[in-house]
Amino acid sequence: MTPITEVEGRRLALSNLEKVLYPATGFTKGEVLHYYATTADHLLPHLRDRPVSFLRYPDGPDGQVFFAKNVPPGTPDWVTTAEVPRMEGPARMVLVQDLASLMWAANLVTEFHTPQWVVQDAGVADRIVFDLDPGAPASVVDCCEVALWLRERLAADRIDAFAKTSGSKGLHLLAAVRPTPSEQVSEYAKQLAVEAERAMPRLALHRMTRSLRPGKVFVDWSQNAARKTTATPYTLRARPEPTVSAPVTWTEVEECGSPAQLTFQAADLAPRLQDYGDLLAPLLDPAGAAPLP
């Protein structure tokens, strides 16, 4: 029998709570829901007003994994949705605005992916992102070296950058910017990726050509395009273990000597949030947003 629970006055049917989604650790669907419930205060501000693309893995990362951008069938009428412009035509997408909507979405077993803009200003970015993706044998340790270079380069333009793990094998850099058309943000991000490759030709790469990636860090600037999304801070990832896209301190980036030092699972987040709070909170403050040069 599917248990029914009430969240902020909304009735939710939560299914298959004992189902193991991460066989490597025995992490269950119930634990997924508990993780999202206990991190909601920090996760929700990063989701709010941003149309969500769901990467769903209802049978775990080893089962079927698929993206869902349109409003899923059976979505409750109390879940906020919005029409979003897309190249192939407008689409109606979900906005996760509150705890009840978060738990409904988490019950679908999802990663959360969001664009660099809010729905009120579709295609006008308020964030810039760099996805640092290592090609083996490079690792997140090499990403840290590139991230430190990018931090200083952004600082030269009076832009404060913050870091989080991708929850997979890389690192994300984010910064708040004053509302700017996504095309301009993409151009600026590409410029810095090109500069990074020139400054560190043996390590950094701005081109997407896969044959060039082994042993280098691909500085993916393209996720600033209006149509692109990036893993939302604090989302679980569809990996063998319940890893999280976790904000990290610059000291942790500077001192990283092995991938294990920047690998965080769901159970690690509660003590980190207690110690640090939301390390990405400055991204939520419009007063701290910098103009692009």
UniProtKB/TrEMBL annotation:
One of its GO terms (molecular function) is DNA ligase (ATP) activity. Residues 28-279 form the DNA ligase D polymerase domain. Keywords: Ligase. Its EC number is 6.5.1.1. It comes from the Bacteria. NCBIfam families: ligD_pol. This is Non-homologous end-joining DNA ligase.
